């Protein structure tokens, strides 16, 4: 997609893209607070209930990379609109679900639609805003939507469940999606794309999609099967074998789906690795903090959502204002470092919370620290993940960045929540009360998240130049 003709048109396009993305991102968390109600209404088993979330994650995480490349080939607007249509129709089916199987199937289709639409958004923004200062601001808005949307989803889900029914967490997407499709067709410029002959690596597409889907499926299934089970080891080995075969093919294919040249950009490569680590800590932090507020402090769904608002507000204040200006002046690489420090500090402070913690004095200050860290880190990583990428590969790089975010989040959530369950069980066996045992498990999750932030910080210090090396490439 070429640069839009006027600043007003670019701004309107950015609003449409981010508003559409907000709908998709909200759906990743809005369902969390509704799960107990859905279980009672549709008769889910305890293990089956997890697949209301997991079915979405498997499709979403598995298709992002392929969807991003398809956007480059057939036109990013086409893929974006197709994803919105599919997501909206699937949302209607989710709301109409009368049984567990129907809801899980509709959630999988929702994940496919979400992958198609979200995989190309970042590429469209980068191409539409080529000037560095404008691009930094646009990426700040995009990052805010991505980070704050998860917190807003918790609040919206709680309010809809308490005031209406769980069906409305899906029905609300239908009018929003319909408007988004119409506006997208009117505001976003059409493009031809490179054509399927420019990069239609069908075997590579099958390998990477199957490998990513199987990998995400294996990760999210560890909650039931365990990490050392034959199922987990076997499926994990198969997923790795598929991804290894994909990597080998990319070195020899005439039109590789993931060209090795993409990784000649050091900022892009390091940013995606750091983002994988960061996502693992942050996904687990959000999930576990919601559990701590409800199971230990006794909050209701709406109260839990409200408790996350300071994080969203702080992220917004930084990513919409300060972060872009700092990145333009000092480089995204330098802005990333204090952001990771603040995230690690915030997670460590959470591990100090007591079972009788007060929100105003114990939780709120830490939420502000985490919001500051997220407001600095997320835009910086987003900008770095698109550094050195030619316009024809923008959709692919966008899909890659979203893939590392989702797969890293799924892996971190599975590993850290498994550790939390193990620690909680040991504490309970040792005589701790329910609140104390749960808190002990949550502490371990937050400590693990802090360690991931430190690992990301060390990588950034070692391999990113202080000024962010905007446009630098590996010698």
From TrEMBL:
Membrane topology term: Multi-pass membrane protein
Protein's cellular compartments: Cell membrane
Alphabetized UniProt keyword annotations: Cell membrane, Membrane, Transmembrane, Transmembrane helix, Transport
Domain Major facilitator superfamily (MFS) profile: 13-468
Domain of life: Bacteria
InterPro entries reported for this sequence: EmrB-like, MFS, MFS_dom, MFS_trans_sf
Transmembrane segments: 12-36, 48-67, 79-105, 111-129, 141-160, 166-188, 200-220, 226-248, 269-293, 305-323, 330-351, 363-382, 394-422, 442-464
Family matches, as CDD domains: MFS_MMR_MDR_like
Major localization class: membrane
Keyword presence, Heme: no
GO molecular function: transmembrane transporter activity
Keyword match Membrane: yes
GO cellular component, one term: plasma membrane
NCBIfam families cross-referenced by the UniProt entry: efflux_EmrB (TIGR00711)
Protein name: MFS transporter
Organism: Parafrankia soli
